[in-house]
Amino acid sequence: VVTAIGEAKPLEYTPAVERTTAAAYDRLKNVIPDVEWPVHAPYIAAINELKRERNAILLVHNYQTPEIFHGVADYAGDSLGLAQQGAKTDASVIVLCGVRFMGETAKILSYEKTVLIPDLDAGCSLAASITGEDVRQLKKRHPGVPVVTYVNTYADVRAETDICCTSANAVKVVESLGVDRVIFLPDAYLGRYVAAQTDVDLIFWDGT
Hints:
This protein has 208 residues and is an alpha/beta fold. The chain has helices at residues 15-20, 22-28, 37-54, 66-69, 79-88, 100-109, 132-141, 155-158, 170-176, 188-197, and strands spanning 56-61, 75-77, 93-97, 114-116, 147-150, 163-165, 181-185, 201-204. Strand 5, helix 8 (155-158) and strand 6 (163-165) form a beta-alpha-beta unit.
């Protein structure tokens, strides 16, 4: 709720709010102090009502706070899993409670839906360490070498990539290309692990 001058207006904890959030309270009563519940409950009730009105779902990353994770989330999990789950739903609106690249992934998999993230400035230092232009320059220095990119990167980086991987399938993806060398981006730590598991020569990104 926003006032005419753009300031948030506190919501009230009423008997109706108490009733509609009773199930959420049961999930949260052991992790949120009783004194805080009247603050969180009105927002939980309002968000859940908005979801019903707008045919929206909340996809919540595992690191969110308890009142979000247990109070308003429709699905919780890791970044790629959330985007995949969003693509399976009939919701018209996806609210991705996470960082920006997660919202981009959800939009890529659900291009026909409206995808929102609560904070456009929510970022990831690993994803921010490389840009699409950086990838283009690497490809110029290593012509013909395929690019494997960790999926938790921004869309402009993935657009310059031959194939994406997760931490779980990185070795398999690298070896699936059937080549002697690959450019592996952007996580050098994951890349070094992959290099230790395969005979493929990996070229790393110096930004991490």
